[in-house]
UniProtKB/TrEMBL annotation:
It catalyses: L-citrulline + L-aspartate + ATP = 2-(N(omega)-L-arginino)succinate + AMP + diphosphate + H(+). This is Argininosuccinate synthase. Gene3D superfamilies: Argininosuccinate synthetase, chain A, domain 2 (3.90.1260.10), HUPs (3.40.50.620). Belongs to the argininosuccinate synthase family. Type 1 subfamily. It comes from the Bacteria. ATP binds at residues 37-45, 64, 145. PROSITE patterns: ARGININOSUCCIN_SYN_1, ARGININOSUCCIN_SYN_2. It comes from Maritalea porphyrae.
Length: 432
C-alpha cells in the first residue's frame, strides 16, 4: 500500500509536487499536530521525521517510563535536536503496576496457559496517555511505531478508539514504503538522523521491556527449532548458574494485591522491582513460547518475567486458603477469556470491565502472607496463612476431630452422585 492509497504521500513524492499542490494536499489531510509514542530509538526517530515530512505537521513526543531500565533523558535530547518543542517524558511505573498489572494478576491471567502478558498490559496505559496528551495540546492525531504484522498496532488503536472514538491514528508502518532496513537507514541519513553503529547491520533480535517483563523476538529467534542463545536473556541468570542455596521470602497480600515483602510495606512498583531482583538472581521466569498472534500468525518469543512469576504463584497460594471452591473454579474458567481480551487489545472493552468486577469481588478476603522458596528457576509456595482462611484443620485431620464432620454422611452423598452413573451402566448392559 502506498501512502496515497491510505491517505498520505509516498516517501519522496512530496518533492515532486509544487508548493501549491503540496499545500492543497496537506490541507485536505487536516492534520496539524500529532502526538507520537516516542522511545528515542532509531525507528521512532525516523517516524518522527517522516510525520513532519509526509504530513507537514507539528509533532509532540510522549515517552513513558514503564520501568524498561533505560535512561530517558537521551530521548528528550534527541527530540530537541530534531526540533520538537513539546516533549512529554513521564514516570508511570506506579500507575502501570497499580492500575494495570495488579488488576490483571488478581485474575491469575495467562495467555495460552503460560504467557504473563507483559507487553500486552503496557499498551492500554501508553494509549491512554497519548489520547490525554492529544487533548491537552490540541492535537489532531496520535501515532505509534508498531508494525503491520504485530499485535501492538491492534492494542494501541483499539485502546485509543475506546477512549476517544473521534481520535485519528497514524500508523506509519502501514502507510510508508520504507519496508526494509536499507530504506530506513537511507531515510535517516538523508534527514541527518543519528544512526547507532550497531544499527547499520542486522540486529540479532528486537526487545521490548517494562517493569513486568522483557520480550525478545525476531532474527536469531525466528526459527523455533533453534535453541535461543544465552545472550538473549537480560533479566535472569541461567538457572544452572543461580545460587546453590535457596532463598526464602514472605509476601503479604491485601484484597488480592501484594503489599509487602518480608514484612516491609512497599508501593506496587517498588514491590515488583524487588521481586524482579530476587527472581532474576535465581533464574526465575524464563519462557520460550510459540504463540498465536491476534493478527493470525504464529510467532516465537523469549520472555523474562521474574517478579511476575513469583507474584503469580504467591497469589495462587494465598487464594488456595481464602477462596471458596466455587469461586476459585469459576475464576479458573473465565481466566483464559480474560487473558485473551488483554492479549488482543480489549482492555477498555465492556466485557473486560465486567469480568474485572467479578474478579475484584472475589478478592475481598484474599489477604495474608505466603512464604516462597526461590531456587534455581523455580518459585515454590511452602507456607501460607490468612486471618480469613477457609482451611479447617479440624475438618481434614486424620486424627479424631470435634465431630463437625460425620463420616457416615459420605455414604448418601456417594449414592446420590452414583445414581445416574448406575442408570447409564444398566442401559449399556441391556444393549450389550
Amino acid at each position: 500500500m502506498t501512502l496515497r492509497q491510505s491517505g498520505g504521500l509516498p516517501y519522496g513524492a512530496a518533492k515532486s509536487l509544487d508548493l501549491n499542490e503540496k499545500t492543497a494536499f496537506f490541507m485536505s489531510k487536516d492534520i496539524n499536530k500529532v502526538v507520537l509514542a516516542y522511545s528515542g530509538g532509531l525507528d521512532t526517530s525516523i517516524i518522527l521525521k517522516w510525520l513532519k515530512v509526509a504530513y507537514d505537521c507539528e509533532v509532540v513526543t510522549f515517552t513513558a517510563d514503564l520501568g524498561q531500565g533505560e535512561e530517558l533523558e537521551p530521548a528528550r535530547k534527541k527530540a530537541e535536536l530534531m526540533g520538537i518543542k513539546e516533549i512529554f517524558i513521564e514516570d508511570v511505573r506506579e500507575e502501570f503496576v497499580r492500575d494495570f498489572v495488579f488488576p490483571m494478576f488478581r485474575a491469575n491471567a495467562l495467555y495460552e496457559g503460560v504467557y504473563l502478558l507483559g507487553t500486552s498490559i503496557a499498551r492500554p496505559l501508553i494509549s491512554k496517555r497519548l489520547v490525554e496528551i492529544a487533548h491537552e495540546v490540541g492535537a489532531d492525531a496520535i501515532s505509534h511505531g508498531a508494525t503491520g504484522k504485530g499485535n501492538d498496532q491492534v492494542r494501541f488503536e483499539l485502546s485509543a478508539y475506546a477512549l476517544d472514538p473521534s481520535i485519528k491514528v497514524i500508523a506509519p508502518w502501514r502507510e510508508w514504503d520504507l519496508q526494509s532496513r536499507t530504506k530506513l537507514l537511507e531515510f535517516a541519513e538523508q534527514h541527518q538522523i543519528p544512526v547507532p553503529k550497531d544499527k547499520r547491520g542486522e540486529a540479532p533480535f528486537s526487545v521490548d521491556a517494562n517493569l513486568l517483563h522483557t520480550s525478545s523476538e525476531g532474527k536469531v529467534l525466528e526459527d523455533p527449532a533453534d535453541v535461543a542463545p544465552e545472550y538473549v536473556y537480560q533479566r535472569t541468570v541461567s538457572p544452572e548458574d543461580a545460587p546453590d542455596k535457596a532463598e526464602i521470602i514472605t509476601i503479604g497480600f491485601e484484597k488480592g494485591d501484594a503489599v509487602s515483602i518480608n514484612g516491609e510495606a512497599m508501593s506496587p512498583a517498588t514491590l515488583l522491582t524487588k521481586l524482579n531482583e530476587l527472581g532474576g538472581k535465581h533464574g526465575i521466569g524464563r519462557l520460550d513460547l510459540v504463540e498465536n498472534r491476534f493478527v493470525g500468525m504464529k510467532s516465537r518469543g523469549i520472555y523474562e518475567t521474574p517478579g511476575g512469576t513469583i507474584l503469580l504463584d504467591a497469589h495462587r497460594g494465598i487464594e488456595s486458603i481464602t477462596l471458596d471452591r466455587g469461586a476459585a473454579h469459576l475464576k479458573d474458567e473465565i481466566m483464559p477469556r480474560y487473558a485473551e481480551l488483554i492479549y488482543n487489545g480489549f482492555w477498555y472493552s465492556p466485557e473486560r470491565e465486567m469480568l474485572q468486577a467479578l474478579i475484584d469481588n472475589s478478592q475481598e478476603m484474599v489477604a495474608g502472607e505466603v512464604t516462597m522458596k526461590l531456587y534455581k528457576g523455580s518459585a515454590t509456595v511452602i507456607a501460607r496463612t490468612s486471618p480469613y482462611s477457609l482451611y479447617s484443620e479440624d475438618l481434614v485431620t486424620f486424627e479424631e476431630g470435634s465431630g463437625t464432620y460425620d463420616h457416615h454422611d459420605a455414604q448418601g452423598f456417594i449414592k446420590l452422585n452414583a445414581l445416574r452413573l448406575k442408570t447409564f451402566a444398566a442401559r449399556k448392559k441391556i444393549i450389550g
